[in-house]
Structure prediction request, 250 residues.
Amino acid sequence: MNEGGTDGSDSSLGTNGAAMTEERRVKLLSLVDILEPLSDEELKELAKRCPNISLQGGEDFYHPEIHDGGLFLILEGRVRMYHTTPAGKEATLDLLGSGTVLWARSMELMYGRAAGAQAVGPSVLAFMGREDLDRFVLNKPEVGLKMMELLAQRLGSSNERMAEVAYKEVPARLASQILRLLESEGVVNRLGGCKLPTAYTNEELGTMIGAERVAVSRALGRLKAEGVVELRHRRINVSDLEVLRRIAEQ
Prediction:
């Protein structure tokens, strides 16, 4: 992990290893949901104060002793929150894409002290320390309000997923998770349906819905048999959203 300001490495690298210009950093910061109220000058100042963290897929980046109370700004790529079960298996708690934030203080509030955070693929984050964040929110209370709204939404989503694991069968849980992924990253395909641009393995999907890989495989088979989804190059294509929603509600 290359963490700006901590190991002397270049903190302005993008996911392809090339230097990220100030203009590019400011542009990416402007796309972060809670930073919408900021002016260009404020974004430029923020870019100077917040070091980049360049990550490879599978790299953990949250360390409570370093990042306690700070804010990660996801500029490029995707990250996941997870915890390891007593049996040694990882369970994905949440997935976050570029253009949003991860508040380190919320990790314990929502997921407990044992939660970790990991890049799903090559990613670039910026980090705002706790003191800078407190000062920033005092100067820009509208940003603090957006953070609270975001935390409330994620807490509700987390509770929803927990209820699904407790009360829904695997096909319904899988359908619900596909709908969530479509909402965050789905694109319309050439045939008028929707698809996920990311290729997820059955094991990865299983960590998201609390199911074994074999159970996910069977659930995907059922969705394919009912003409709801197709797999093309390991990517999920959804041909009938309404049927997928009905299955998710079962």
The first helix runs from residue 22 to 30. The radius of gyration is 19 Å. The domain at 168-248 is CATH 1.10.10.10 (Arc Repressor Mutant, subunit A).
